[in-house]
Structure formats: structure tokens, C-alpha cells
Specification:
By secondary structure, the protein is an alpha/beta fold. The protein folds into three domains: 51 residues; 79 residues; 178 residues, Ribonuclease H-like superfamily/Ribonuclease H (Nucleotidyltransferase, domain 5, 2-Layer Sandwich), CATH 3.30.420. It has 14 helices and five strands.
Length: 355
């Protein structure tokens, strides 16, 4: 029972006691009310019934008389969808140019009623509207969604099967006392989300080659699969002269196409960026407070243990994963090699040749 319900029951007991004693003053002394309160309670009970016994806050009932009109409210919501990062003052000025009179406080009131008070909530609304219905996005909306949502950045990436596209990147982890700066070389299969990671004290091209040669390629070779395309950013550890750069030469030797993000939009590497955020939130920030590391090898051992659970035990809810683990998706997504049809030679005719 809530506090309001308890107060309403006490008021009803007051009315019943006064009727039973036939003495208002005595009933008020017993229940702790004044005569003025008693007559007010009785008047409300006679007018509104049991609802009249519930305490109500003073103020207007229903919509506030100073609430903006439905036309202005619709215009504010439409503007929040088109420009989710505009503040209340900017929205007020934009609407005034269109002949709609509204204050910044009125804009914030509309946002508050629709749970759009923060920029984060307005961006979520834009992302939800984009997912539910196909609308034409402006360049500003695309830029904001790409900066806000890694899932939206992945819309350019198509990986129909395992090995069709492997995304690679370098991530700065932090500084280890006595060792120096620590970098993380990562790779992830865009179809299955199967991930590989290796810690290094530098981000030279040779470290990127080591990850591919020692971790990524052996996994594909064990599954009798190949890597078709590698997607990277324009970092110097991945890009350079094709005839001199170690990483470029390695991919040429393995007959793997190298695609960089400068070909399309620079935000098209969102899958590996989301992997970095997951590693940072779920592993490095947690393990860094729990374990004191002295060497990179100790950090790598802890990272390998986390990746084992990430790849083989943890269900993923990303696009196309449907609760599967990356290892399951990796196996399910292996390309089916078509069986070669045996070429049948025409049978020799047994009929005698004509003379």
C-alpha cells in the first residue's frame, strides 16, 4: 500500500468515526485532525467519492495551459529528428525563422515529455527511426550516426561467408610501468566476428605481419579456408609502397586483396572499432584493476584467456549472429566448395561402321 492510499484510508476512518460517535470535535481529537480539515475531507468525499480522499498536488489538471500547441510540438520533434545535436536555443532560433514562436524552455519541455532531453536520447531516436523505416538521410545525419553508432558504421561491410573480409587495426592500450607504451594488433572476421589480438610494444608493420602469420592464417588453414580481402585503415603499419612495405608484400605473397578505408568512407571499419571498445570495457579496464602486470607476456596470457571465452563461449547478438558464438558462426560460414562434376566421355558405338 502506497503512502497516498494509507492517507486516504485514514481520512475515511475519520469520517466513519465521526459518524459513529456523532461528534465531530471528539473524532478530530482522536484522529489528529482539525475541524476545518474534517469539513474539507467530507466535502471532497461527497463531491468526488473515494478519489476525493487522495491528496493531489496543487496545479492545473491535465495538460498545462501554457503547453505549446500540437503544431509547434510536431515541428520540434521533426527538427530533433533532422538535427539531433542542436541545442534548445538553436532549435528556438530555427523555428522562429520559420514563423513558429516558442521559447527554449518550451523546446526542453517537449523533449522531456518525449524522453529526448539529452543528445544521446535524440540520437537513439534517429537510429531507431532509420532501422524501422527506410528514410533518406542527410549528410549531417549520416555523419552523426556514424560517429555515434558502430553498428551503423558497419552498414557498408558485406561478408557473405567466413574469410570474405577480415578487418585489422591497431589500438593503443596504455603505458606499462618499466616497459613503455603498449599497442594491440587486432583482426576480426567480419562474417563470424571471430577475433585475434596480439600485444606489442610498437606498431611497426612487422607486428601486423606477425599477427596475420602466427594467429590468423593458421586458424583459417586449420579450417581449410582462405582469406579473400583484408580491410585496414590508412596507418603506416598497414599501408605503403607495394614493392617495399612488409605488410603489403606479405598480403601479395598470400594472394590476399588489401582494401583500405580511403576507398569508401573512412568510418567503414566499425566492426573492429566495436571490438576495441569491448576489449577495453570488458577486459583491460577490469583486469587492470584486478591484476598487477610486470611484462607484456603476462598481459598477453590474460588476453588469450579472455579471447578464448569471447570466441568459443560467449553468444553474440550482432547483425547475423543470432546468439551464436563466433566459433560456431566461423564454422557455419565456411564456403561450400562445389563438387566437380565428372566429365563423362561418350561411349563408343558398338554398331559396325558403314563400308
Amino acid at each position: 500500500m502506497t503512502t497516498k492510499e494509507k492517507v486516504a484510508r485514514r481520512k475515511l476512518s475519520l469520517l466513519e468515526l465521526a459518524q459513529e460517535l456523532d461528534n465531530v470535535s471528539r473524532a478530530c481529537r482522536v484522529m489528529g485532525y482539525s475541524r476545518q480539515q474534517f469539513y474539507e475531507i467530507r466535502r471532497n468525499f461527497q463531491t468526488y467519492g473515494a478519489e476525493g480522499l487522495i491528496d493531489r498536488l496543487p496545479g492545473a489538471r491535465g495538460p498545462h495551459p501554457n503547453r505549446v500547441s500540437s503544431e509547434i510540438e510536431t515541428a520540434i520533434l521533426d527538427h530533433a529528428l533532422a538535427h539531433p545535436c542542436h541545442g534548445a536555443l538553436r532549435v528556438e532560433q530555427e523555428l522562429r525563422l520559420r514563423g513558429l514562436q516558442v521559447s527554449a524552455g518550451g523546446v526542453r519541455g517537449v523533449w522531456q515529455r518525449h524522453r529526448l532531453l539529452t543528445k544521446h536520447e535524440r540520437l537513439l531516436r534517429l537510429e531507431k527511426a532509420t532501422a524501422e523505416q527506410k528514410i533518406a538521410l542527410s549528410d549531417e545525419q549520416i555523419r552523426l550516426l556514424e560517429r555515434f553508432s558502430p553498428e551503423f558504421r558497419e552498414r557498408h561491410i558485406e561478408a557473405p561467408h567466413t574469410g570474405a573480409l577480415v578487418a585489422v587495426d591497431t589500438f593503443f592500450v596504455g603505458v606499462l610501468k618499466g616497459v613503455g607504451r603498449i599497442y594491440l594488433q587486432t583482426a576480426i572476421d567480419c562474417h563470424s566476428r571471430y577475433a585475434w589480438a596480439r600485444l606489442n610494444t610498437s606498431k611497426l608493420p612487422i607486428t601486423a605481419v606477425h599477427l596475420m602469420n602466427n594467429d590468423v592464417l593458421p586458424t583459417f588453414e586449420a579450417a581449410d579456408a582462405t582469406i579473400e580481402v583484408v580491410l585496414s585503415d590508412n596507418g603506416r603499419e598497414f599501408c605503403g609502397r607495394p614493392d617495399r612495405h612488409p605488410y603489403e608484400l606479405f598480403l601479395q605473397l598470400e594472394e590476399i586483396e588489401h582494401r583500405t578505408t580511403r576507398v569508401k568512407r573512412p568510418q567503414s571499419n566499425g566492426i573492429v572499432e566495436r571490438l576495441h571498445r569491448t576489449l577495453l570495457d570488458e577486459h583491460f579496464r577490469v583486469e587492470g584493476r584486478r591484476t598487477w602486470f610486470d611484462t607484456v607476456e603476462e598481459m598477453q596470457a590474460a588476453l588469450d584467456s579472455y579471447l578464448d571465452g569471447y570466441n568459443h563461449k560467449r553468444p553474440h547478438q550482432g547483425r547475423g549472429m543470432n546468439g551464436r558464438t563466433p566459433a560456431q558462426a566461423f564454422k557455419d560460414g565456411l564456403p561450400k566448395t562445389p563438387t566437380r562434376k565428372e566429365v563423362k566421355t561418350p561411349e563408343s558405338s558398338t554398331e559396325p561402321k558403314a563400308a
